[in-house]
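Q: Joint fold for the lines below.
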Amino acid sequence: MTSIKALVLTAIVGACSVFAFLYSGLYPMGADNKHFAVTYWALETLRERSIARAIRDIQVPSLNDPQQLLTGGQDYNAMCSGCHLQPNKINSDLSLGLYPQPPNLSLEPTKGLYGDANARAARHFWYIKHGIKASGMPAWGLTHTDERIWAMVAFIQKLPMLTPEQYQILTAPEEGAADEPMAGM
Amino acid sequence: MNTSIRSIFILTLALATSATVWAHDPTEHAKEAAAKKAKADCSSMQKMDMSKMNMDDPVMQAMHSKCAKQMALKNKSTKDAGHENMNHDNMDHSKMPMGDMKMHMPESSTAHQHN
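A: Joint structure:
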């Protein structure tokens, strides 16, 4: 009985401490203030386990159509390159300022990281479609079709092999296209 | 004492240097925006040795398709501009071989009526 009382008392004190910490404002929220290594590990593990579970049923389509590279290239340049960079660009205001730092997708991925090319494609599709909470990565799936997102994935697969000149040609806006896309047209 | 003064000096110098490295000119944003709007620069493609290219590579096919489209548009606009720049007033159209040419009449002329 005494041990149960002690357990309940500890739980109440613990809960009160958590609330006191939350309301105290003591937690440093700035993106320029890094997490403790243990906090980073916990958040990263939570993220990676969640995504690994979510992508299990994703079927990767063929990603070798040149038209996908043209569509995906333009979207990548407009929506992703600011954070995830491009050939011959090692950083940007966004890549330096965001925390956690977004990966540089113009570099060859670490061998074996997240499995083979197919597994990485499924993972990129999920990242782009759903975004990642509190990381700065938006859920583009709310405004872009799956087909368009797969085109971006196709482009990202080729990105580490591209020279700056190839990148420029593939991502440049189509000639004759309107400068700004017109909403609702 | 000497060590701490030296440490403070080095730290101040490092902070000042890093601040100048990261802080960039505001015009950089304008340059980046302009680069995003720039047309495909196909001149680099023209310098490539086509015989050494792998035309089964989707990257090459995509680049080729984009530059071919751009080249076609450029040729069309050059042709159009060349025709518009001609001075038709000084030409004797009766001496021109018009047999194989299709005339594009303005819409108003098709509505011409004989009463």
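Q: Anything notable?
A: Residues 179-185 of chain A have pLDDT under 50 and may be disordered. The CA atoms of residues 129 and 144 of chain A lie 8 Å apart.
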